[in-house]
Amino acid sequence: MAEQVLNITNLSIDIPLSGDVLHAVDGISVSVNKGETLCIVGESGCGKSLTSLAIMDLLPQKAIRTVDKLELNGKSILNYSDREMSDVRGNKIGMIFQEPMTSLNPSFTVENQMIETLTRHRNITGNSAKKLAVEMLEKVGITPAKPRLKQYPHQLSGGLRQRVMIAMTLLCQPELIIADEPTTALDVTIQAQILELLKRLQSDFNTGLILITHDLGVVAKIADRVAVMYAGQIVEEGSVYEIFDDPSHPYTKGLLSCIPVPGKIKKGERLGSIPGMVPSLIGKFSECRFAGRWTVEPSKHDEKITTLIPIKGSKYEFSVDGTTNHIVRFCCKHCLERSKSKINKGVN
Amino acid sequence: MFFYAFKRSLLAILVALTVSMISFSLLYISSDPAIAMAGETASDADIEAIRELYGFDRSIVVQYLDWLKKAASGDLGKSYYFRTDVSHLIAERLPTTMTLGLCAIIFAIGLAVPLGVAAAIRPNSIIDRVALFLSVMGQALPSFWFALILIVLFSVNLRWLPVSGSDTWLHFVMPTIVLGYYAAPAIMRLTRTGMLEVLSTDYIRTARAKGLRPPVVLFKHALRNAIIPVVSLAAVQFGFMLGGSIVVETIFALHGAGFLAWESITRNDLPTVQGLILAFSLFYIILTLIADLINAWLDPRIRIS
């Protein structure tokens, strides 16, 4: 079995508002193996980014994190102090952000910002640090790398800045990289290059990668496993093939039916969309999280009937077709019925 | 960087010329020095004679150019009242004002920047409230009243500090506090706002995600960017302290340039007023130039265009 890099069990994030509580993330569990890419997909506001910040313990001060288990390489980092956590950040877990234009400090050179990470975690300074920085910049495809060291972020293009960010993140060779929509702010050609680069570097260094995105095209290109998030919960999780070929949750089906397929869309036909909005996550939920969103036309995925096997101790959680990796979770009876799946109650 | 400095210096000289031109014409319009010099009992003929003697009958342009030519070689004319060289007069008074201004701006920055940073780290905390209270006080207290309170407390009751004069460093303590405390609130509020804004930026999140220690994040990554507008403000405040410390200088009987300005204005001592305006405006211009150069050094986006 592959070595597990990260394991989070039952993570919840609550944000107290005046008089009420925003349940941004509600009991999610994910794990990532060495060399594996886990994509977390979902609409805006479903809690993807907060989840990534929660792993780094970088949530906004107001947010309250509760989690049963948070393990890095089998070692619990749950009760780490801020000082211990800062030894982990940038060293064992690296993070790449969405906005390359604003994620680098405008007042310092590329060299300064790269080397400070090395100095902090590896105690490498001076020329040897500079050499490592140049090597890493070359690895992310910046050639010649040397003149770039003396430049400031505002002198670099968006694609170059994101490459610098990636190089900076890889300097200490982290065991886990969390990339929060790393390609959203870039144009399509640069997007493809950056994804290619991430994939290559990940296999070179054998790191675990959590990629947060709302772009299913990106998911198809890079993911090993996919977790579909909706309203603070993971509704379905499985390998990229299972999710794309065998989606069981009506929400996953809805998402997939929104992807326009060239040649299959008739002229004048509307592109697919899921109607409505993510429900407000403030206060307690009384009704179904998907209320008002199921007017979507039946897609081709609805024709296929999957068998759901209930998972012990959980009312609406099922394993799809008996595989242990493909899990689907419904919020209520109504959604379960909508999934049009056969439920095998006999096997436990 | 060199080109930028050169460009800014040229601009500074142009600004200095413009200021001197405007102040010269304003003074020319506002008063007739011949009447003031001749005294109340003088006849029209006397006044006319003085006018001719000092060249006041010439056109404003000729007078200005004449003054400018002399000023460029350091000759600012003779004071009508003190009967000595204006440049000598100003040079004599300047060290007091400079010392006071420098102490006050250092006091103001030393008080305001740490308070502003502390307030920004924990907004709405006790420290933030205290800082807000101090800054509202500083803004609202008239300096003459605050100065008198200090004198009553430290000189009259406790007898720790001398009431007035400028002989030892002890004489400068209270004027420094009064002048510096008046300038501190603006610097503090600007530091706080700037830090709050910078602390919520993406690059601070990046710095944290890199595992940098909080002091490094705060003082290297955040303060460097937040301090840029503060430098410009502090330069203007410093200029104000050098030129506008008249009230404080008067209360503590510090015979500095501000006090001299007040004296010469009430006595219609035109060359001295003119010379002081030139000196004060030069301070402002030099200080903003220095502030701009510091900012260019702090912010590569200004430096490399």
Write up what this structure looks like.
The complex is a heterodimer of chains A (348) and B (305). Chain A is α/β, with parallel strands linked by helices. Chain A folds into 3 domains: 141 residues, 3-Layer(aba) Sandwich (Rossmann fold), CATH 3.40.50.300; 74 residues, no CATH class; 84 residues, no CATH class. Chain A has 11 helices and 15 strands. The longest helix of chain A is centred in the middle third of the chain and has 18 residues. The mean pLDDT of chain A is 83. Chain B has a domain of 179 residues: MetI-like (MetI-like fold, Orthogonal Bundle). Chain B is mainly alpha-helical and 305 residues long. The longest helix of chain B is centred in the middle third of the chain and has 36 residues. At the A-B interface, helix 2 and helix 3 of A face helix 9 and helix 10 of B.
Overview features:
heterodimer, A: 348 residues, Rossmann fold, five-stranded antiparallel sheet, 30% helix, B: 305 residues, mainly alpha, MetI-like fold
Question: Summed up, what is this model?
Answer:
The complex is a heterodimer of chains A (348) and B (305). Chain A is of the alpha/beta class and 348 residues long. Chain A contains eleven helices and 15 strands.
How are the secondary structure elements laid out?
The complex is a heterodimer of chains A (348) and B (305).
Chain A: E1 4-17, E2 20-33, E3 37-41, H1 48-56, E4 64-66, E5 69-72, E6 75-76, H2 82-88, E7 93-96, H3 110-122, H4 126-139, H5 146-149, H6 158-170, E8 176-180, H7 188-205, E9 208-213, H8 216-222, E10 225-230, E11 233-239, H9 240-245, H10 250-257, E12 307-310, E13 317-320, E14 327-329, H11 333-338, E15 342-343
Parallel strand pairs in A: 3-9, 3-10, 7-8, 8-9, 12-15
Antiparallel strand pairs in A: 1-2, 1-4, 1-5, 5-6, 10-11, 11-14, 12-13, 13-14
Helix pairs in contact in A: 3-4, 4-6, 6-7
Chain B: H1 2-30, H2 33-38, H3 44-54, H4 60-72, H5 86-121, H6 126-140, H7 143-157, H8 170-199, H9 202-209, H10 214-244, H11 246-251, H12 257-266, H13 270-298, H14 300-303
Helix pairs in contact in B: 1-13, 5-6, 5-8, 5-10, 5-13, 6-8, 7-8, 8-10, 9-10, 10-13, 12-13
